Amino acid sequence: MKRRIATFLFLALIALFSCNSSNRVFEQYHKFDNATWNRFDILKFDVPAEKPGIYDVSLVVRHTANYAYDVLPVYITIISSGEERAKEYQFKLRDKNGKFLGKPNEDIFESTFPVHSELEITKAGSFTVKVENIIPKYDTPDIKEIGLIVNRQKLPEKTEKKQKKQSRIVFGSPRSPGVLYQHLPIISLSSESCFLSKSRLSNFFSSRMRAIK
Fold first, then answer.
1. pLDDT above 50: residue 40
2. What mean pLDDT comes out for the span 129-148?
């Protein structure tokens, strides 16, 4: 029994990490000459959306240790299916003590900020994200790169129904039902239906460990 549980744990973790990596559909960075972002240099990212679904959009800021401000104010516009969503953001780069919040890598600090979660794309195609620097100066020094990351979160409900006929695997056999077969969460191998959450895995593992003690 312990060996079966250990096998399930191993395969479940593989499935979970595979889902996380396969969700990324776009990652692109704009590198600035002389690490300087000109006030009128509006960045444009064209994101392919080959399948309908729910997308999460995040912005990555890479700056040097000499960046002079506590925040980076930007204006972001998302254009999808002829509609525009625009919003001003104040991305915080320092804490109250003046320490940079980003992940350090030699003399570069990297911070990732959520821009739009659950952006619904109903038709295959693409959408555009524009990023404008709104610091009231002609040039903003010590900005190395601005990047955009897009992850595909899930499918709309109508499309999800089409996934029911896809094959799934479970551990155990209905002919010899045991604790594992009766209670383990089903794992779908489809990249379009990786909805196995960390909380479900955690709850399942905890209950199984208690059962075998």
1. yes
2. 97
Smallest CA-to-CA distance from 1 within 186, 172, 169 is with: 172
Cα–Cα nearest to 120, from 25, 53, 58, 57: 53
Report d(CA 69, CA 98) in Å as an integer: 9
pTM, whole model, 2 decimals? 0.64
> Token match 């997308």: residue?
55
Q: Which of 47, 37, 25 is nearest to 152 (CA)?
A: 25
Give the end-to-end CA distance of the chain in Å, rounded to a whole number. 12
| Tokens describing residue 40 | 């009128």
Amino acid identity, position 13: L
| Residue owning tokens 């392919």 | 48
For residue 200, the 8-state DSSP code is H
SS3 for 146? strand
Determine the Cα–Cα distance for residues 163 and 165; give it in Å rounded to an integer: 6
Assign residue 175 a region (left: φ > 0; alpha: ψ between -120 and 50; beta: otherwise).
alpha
Q: Please state, in angstroms and as integers, the Cα–Cα distance from residue 74 to each residue in 86, 89, 147, 194, 200, following that order.
A: 11, 5, 13, 33, 37
